[in-house]
Amino acid sequence: MEYKIQFEDITNVQKEISNSMAIWNNSINKLLKTIKNFSDDSSLKGETMDSIKVYLCEVHGTLLVSMQNLIQDYAYSFLLYKDGYYIVLIVI
């Protein structure tokens, strides 16, 4: 049985994914910074505003950090996938 693995194609996909992930992470970091700046604004006062700040940090902040973790996990999984094909190439 013979395998024809286009390792260069896998590497190109990894580069494209990496570029996209960098853009997504950059956007998420901007959103997290905006949430922090909003939460740190002392001119926004009152119980309602405090509740809004807590909600933004606890719900949206947590969701954004979870998305970053998901992106990182995907990148790691793809690296393992690529490494698996590389090992097949060495064996062949």
From TrEMBL:
Highest taxon, organism lineage: Bacteria
InterPro entries found in the cross-reference section: LXG_dom
Domain LXG: 16-76
Family: In the N-terminal section; belongs to the LXG family.
Annotated protein name in UniProt: LXG domain-containing protein
